[in-house]
From TrEMBL:
Region described as Disordered: 1-24
Lineage, broadest ranks: Eukaryota, Sar, Rhizaria, Cercozoa, Chlorarachniophyceae
GO molecular function per UniProt: protein kinase A regulatory subunit binding
Amino acid composition bias (Basic and acidic residues), ranges on this chain: 7-17
Any one annotated GO CC term: cytosol
Residue ranges annotated for the A-kinase anchor protein 7-like phosphoesterase domain, each copy included: 30-176
Full protein name: A-kinase anchor protein 7-like phosphoesterase domain-containing protein
Length: 187
């Protein structure tokens, strides 16, 4: 796979303040941009993982993410109206064009190696192969949003990016993940 030159993904606007506008009302997260995981071999591997997890903890099956909708979230948005949506779509379009050029029009190949958790609620697979492209895509979306003037529409634009595919997600108040023996559930 071709290398991404990270200098192509930087913007002169990256040194701007990283806080939300004080005049903007608090909008809840309502959209996200993702890369769909549709490689048959990878999806099968994830299904096998979920079966192993179900054998260890059958009560968790109801929290599994359907592999038909498996994806890696790149950005989460809090978009307030059609004008902001139009700007975000432009930022996404520009950023995706840069990624496609860096991949030389080849499909993005992803591989998952390892398991992780976010607190006690989310169990995920760590994206290894393809992670640099996903990080570059996120940086490009953030840079484009800053340039276009819609950075406030991105939730936590400066938070470190963890490329992952969620396998199981608990609701608030449920702590089923903490007792899982991850060492017995290799992927």
């Amino acid at each position: 796979a071709p290398n991404v030159d990270s200098s192509h993904w930087k913007s002169s606007n990256e040194s701007r303040p990283k806080t939300r506008s004080k005049n903007r009302p608090k909008i809840p997260a309502n959209y996200f941009a993702c890369v769909r995981v549709d490689d048959a071999e990878l999806v099968s591997k994830i299904r096998d993982f979920q079966c192993k997890l179900e054998a260890q903890r059958p009560e968790l099956k109801r929290f599994f993410i359907d592999t038909a909708g498996l994806h890696v979230t790149v950005c989460v948005f809090a978009i307030d109206g059609p004008h902001e949506m139009k700007k975000i779509r432009l930022a996404l379009s520009n950023a995706s064009k840069l990624l496609i050029r860096s991949l030389h029009s080849q499909p993005l190949q992803l591989a998952i190696d390892g398991i992780g958790t976010f607190g006690n609620r989310v169990l995920f697979g760590k994206v290894q192969h393809g992670q640099l492209y996903l990080e570059a895509l996120r940086k490009s979306i953030v840079a484009e949003a800053r340039f276009i003037g819609c950075i406030d529409s991105i939730v936590d634009p400066d938070k470190p990016f963890v490329a992952h595919a969620t396998f199981a997600k608990m609701n608030h108040g449920q702590n089923g993940i903490r007792d899982i023996e991850l060492s017995k559930l290799d992927i």
